[in-house]
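Q: I'm writing a short explainer about D-alanyl-D-alanine dipeptidase for a general audience and would like to include a description of its predicted shape. Could you first generate the structure from this sequence?
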Amino acid sequence: MSLALITFLFFSFSSEEKFQESLVNLKDLSTEFVYEIRYATPNNFIGETLYDCAECLLRPEVAEALLQANQYFCEKGFRIKIYDCYRPLDVQKKMWAKVPRPTYVGNPYGNGSIHNKGAAVDITLETLEGCYVEMGSDYDYFGREAHIDNYNFSKEILANRKLLIDGMRMFGFNTIRTEWWHFSYKRNWSYKTLNVPLPCD
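A: Of course. Here's the predicted structure. Afterward I'll give you a sentence or two in plain language.
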C-alpha cells in the first residue's frame, strides 16, 4: 500500500470518526420547539437533578429529521415539546443504579440507550397556543398506561397518540412498546455511544 493511500485512509477514517461524535444543539437550529428537560430538574423518576443544564443535543441528521417532523405538526396546529435528547453515558449509569429494569432503562453496561448515541428523543405535543395535549400518562411513567399497545383510553387520547406516533414515523423515527414518548432515529446503529458532557456555561 502506498504512503499516499495510507494517508488518505487515515484522514478519511479520522474525519468519519469526528463526524460520528458530532452533536448539534437544537436551539441553534430552530426556535419553534418547547422544552421541559426533566433531567435538568428533580422532577423525574429518579427524583434528582441529573443534568447540569437543560440542553437538547442530537446527531445532525437526527436534528434535521426532528425539524421536519415539527414542521409537519405545526401545520396541523401542534408543536413538539421536548423532554430529553442526548444523554451522557455517566447519567445512564446513575439511572441504572436506581432502576435496573431494562424494560424502561437501557443497561449502560450492555447496549445502553439510543439517547447515549444522540439519536433518540423523548417528546410530546402541545398546541401552538401552548395548551396541554393528553397522552394517557405522564412522561417517564413506568406502567401499562404508557404502553403504545394499550388502547384502553378515550378516543381523544388514542387520536393524540396516533398523531404523534404516525407523524414521527413519517420522518424516520421508530417507537418502543413501553413508552409513548420515546422515538429512536432509524439509522442509530451507525452511531457511537458517547459520554460527552453537556455544554453548560
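A: For your explainer, you could say: The first strand starts at residue 24 and ends at 25.
Q: Perfect, that's easy to follow.
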